[in-house]
Design brief:
By secondary structure, the chain is mainly β. It contains two helices and 27 strands. The strands form seven sheets. It has a five-stranded mixed β-sheet, with no helix packed on it. Strands 18, 19, 20, 21 and 22 form a five-stranded antiparallel β-sheet that branches. A hairpin with a 5-residue loop joins strand 7 and strand 8. The radius of gyration is 23 Å and the shape is globular.
């Protein structure tokens, strides 16, 4: 199957012409993430179309275009078109390139059907330039009925840039309905929208932090924020980096932790200078600089959050995940080619593991018995863009480990050593 929007691109592939140039760039097809909705009506553990079970696929295009598709594959032998959205439809004019995963969710405002929630997209005309210019598309968040494709709400608070990254959609009270969306944008902002109300007109958005700017501060967030629930505050973790310009080295990128003390279903802003001051959006001066690792081995309290400055040209290139009080994220740093070497240079890839509380080292990567700044990351051999870390419990011969891996490079949270050993196993089916 190929989407009709791409049919005109097939001739170029067949002819292998014209060549890819700046004036005639690479052709993209359906290059985005695929998400899935499943409904097992009789809860028998089997998805059978004749039983009324439903399976829907939601497909973003990334650089393939400003549209997204939904397919009904309840009967895999007879897949059906479900719906399509594009920027030419009423209500979706702001839709940019659909990079964000269409996150399936259940919310109180829509009964009976799932919804999909997605960032409004990437704005290539204004974000592919250096420096980036003002966005005129991709701004906001779309909430769409997952069965019909009808627009539930376009969330676009004032000041929001384009939102290409995945969203953190959370069920804060555990009742089965998602009630909060955390999002980041290409202008260095962090947002929260409270969506628990049955009337979307009453949903409220807050600009939690403003961490971008111009020049060296022109930080972009292209990744999903990781949200960790707590008893007195929720933790938001995200790193900056323009992975679309891997050789750019003028912007100072950072990894951030923010504390959201509004742990209920409704909230407000995070920062203030004095106790008598009103709450406002956080800026960098509200956060503690932990780059030099000053809180290693201490129990100091950090009021609003912290940041860790990365190396020259180093960028966070994927989502962060948190396991056992440790935040894991991958970076890439361009490196100059060695003299006289003609082989490709993918830059230095690193996997970071830092404590959520204060950005301190948590794993003794060089096994010398002392945690230092150098233990907060280790190089991933081969370079390039390390994949988003995944938490992958593994059991072999009754012995279980809980490594966090980026590709084949793994770290065991809370255990000494630079990697998790793996044993080769074999299986056969007779």
């Amino acid at each position: 199957m190929i989407f009709p929007e791409f049919l005109g691109k097939l001739k170029r592939l067949r002819d292998n012409s014209p060549d890819i140039t700046t004036a005639d760039p690479k052709s993209y097809f359906a290059d985005g993430a695929v998400s899935i909705y499943q409904k097992d009506v009789n809860s028998n553990g089997k998805l059978v179309a004749a039983d009324g079970d439903k399976v829907y696929l939601y497909i973003g295009m990334r650089r393939g275009g400003r549209f997204a598709y939904a397919l009904d594959v309840s009967d895999p032998d007879v897949p059906k078109f479900l719906w399509k959205i594009n920027n030419g439809m009423t209500g979706f004019e702001e839709l940019g390139q659909t990079w964000s995963t269409l996150r399936v969710a259940k919310i109180r405002a829509v009964t009976g059907d799932p919804v999909v929630i997605m960032g409004a997209g990437y704005d290539p005309e204004n974000e592919d330039t250096i420096p980036a210019t003002t966005n005129n598309k991709g701004r906001g968040i779309f909430v769409v009925n997952g069965r019909t494709g009808a627009l539930v709400k376009h969330i676009m608070p004032a000041g929001m840039g384009s939102v290409p990254g995945d969203l953190a959609v959370v069920d804060r009270d555990g009742d089965g309905n998602f009630d909060r969306i955390y999002a980041t944008d290409t202008k260095g902002n962090v947002w929260r929208t409270d969506i628990n109300d049955v009337d979307p007109a009453n949903w409220t958005s807050y600009q939690l932090a403003t961490l971008g700017g111009s020049g060296a501060n022109a930080r972009k967030f292209l990744n999903k924020p990781d949200v960790v629930f707590g008893s007195s505050f929720d933790t938001i973790l995200v790193g900056s980096g323009d992975r679309e310009h891997p050789f750019e080295n003028a912007v100072v990128n950072r990894f951030y932790m923010l504390k959201d003390s509004n742990i209920g279903l409704t909230g407000g802003l995070l920062c203030k200078t004095l106790a008598a001051d009103p709450y406002r959006s956080c800026v960098e001066s509200d956060l503690v600089d932990v780059t030099s690792n000053p809180y290693q081995g201490t129990t100091a309290t950090i009021p609003h959050g912290w940041y860790l400055t990365l190396g020259t040209g180093e960028k966070v290139v994927g989502n962060a995940i948190s396991v056992a009080g440790t935040a894991f994220f991958g970076t890439n740093q361009p490196t100059p080619p060695a003299p006289g070497v003609c082989s490709s240079n993918l830059g230095m890839a690193r996997l970071y593991a830092v404590g959520i509380e204060a950005g301190a080292a948590r794993i003794d990567t060089n096994a010398d018995g002392v945690l230092t700044t150098a233990d907060r990351s280790e190089e991933v051999k081969g370079g390039g863009f390390p994949p988003t870390p995944v938490y992958s419990p593994v059991c072999v011969d009754g012995k279980c480990g809980t490594p966090v891996c980026t590709g084949s490079h793994c770290i065991n949270p809370g255990e000494t050593g630079t990697s998790t050993k793996r044993s080769r196993t074999y299986w056969y089916k007779k």
